[in-house]
């Protein structure tokens, strides 16, 4: 909770600074937004590490192979990157590029999830036989 409050305070401060700069120096507003985004991601890195570790432990306890867990982590990572890149493009006034980034992210997420689907089908086939 404390970390989220720090992140929210920093993000709101950066947004207000960017808003003030956007009137006269729009390119600096985009730079502030990018720096704030990098800071937010850096602040939340430990939480991501904890989640990946917990998923790995869960997979070990459930005796799941890594091939079934890795696609989930990849898809989550792809969705975060897609969202951040799309919003960054929109903030820079490039909505068209943002749309292409989102479409590419969707295709890549589908491609990353194929091994999971294959693994689940194989697991079900083993259970039925």
Model description:
Helices cover 90% and strands 0% of the residues. It is an all-alpha fold and 129 residues long. The protein has two domains: 43 residues; 85 residues, no CATH class. It is built from five helices and no strands.
Could you give the topology of this structure?
Layout: H1 2-22, H2 26-43, H3 45-61, H4 66-91, H5 95-128
Helix pairs in contact: 1-2, 4-5
Features:
129 residues, mainly alpha, 2 domains
Structural class: mainly alpha
Strand tally is: 0
Mean pLDDT: 88
Radius of gyration: 19 Å
Beta-strand fraction estimate: under 5%
- Major sheet attributes: none
Low-confidence blocks of residues: none
Indicate the percent of residues in helices.
Answer: over 70%
User: Helix and strand succession?
Assistant: HHHHH
Short description:
This protein is an all-alpha fold and 129 residues long. It has five helices and no strands.
């Amino acid at each position: 909770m404390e970390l989220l409050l720090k992140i929210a305070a920093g993000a709101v401060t950066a947004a207000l600074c960017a808003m003030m700069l956007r009137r006269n120096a729009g390119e600096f507003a985009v730079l502030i937004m990018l720096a704030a985004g990098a800071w937010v991601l850096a602040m939340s890195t430990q939480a991501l590490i904890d989640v990946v570790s917990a998923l790995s432990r869960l997979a070990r306890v459930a005796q799941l192979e890594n091939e079934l867990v890795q696609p989930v982590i990849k898809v989550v990572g792809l969705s975060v990157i897609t969202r951040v890149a799309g919003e960054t493009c929109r903030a820079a006034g490039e909505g068209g590029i943002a749309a292409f980034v989102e479409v590419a992210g969707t295709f890549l997420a589908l491609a990353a999830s194929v091994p999971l689907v294959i693994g689940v089908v194989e697991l079900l086939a083993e259970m039925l036989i």
